[in-house]
Amino acid sequence: MRVLPRATVWNRWSRLLPCYSTPWSATSVNARLFHLETRVGAVRPGLLADLVAVEGDPSADISALRRVTLVMKGGRIVRR
Predict the structure, then answer these.
(1) pLDDT value of residue 73
(2) What pTM was estimated for this model as a whole?
(3) 50 touches 70 (CB < 8 A)
């Protein structure tokens, strides 16, 4: 098995996926798939959520996900 550098993997995925589908697929689709939609899969009161804030709009430009400005895990800021 060949291991690819992270940048190579990123470049391949960013060309394959429509930019609007990536965040959506990573949240609500997986929550439904695993029957966890009452616990996770959206950002709303009462649900568990880890958040990543980026500079830009990932729905218009997937490369915005490379410009992380804030990470929250379990309600706590873990990176600024």
Answers:
(1) 85
(2) 0.51
(3) no
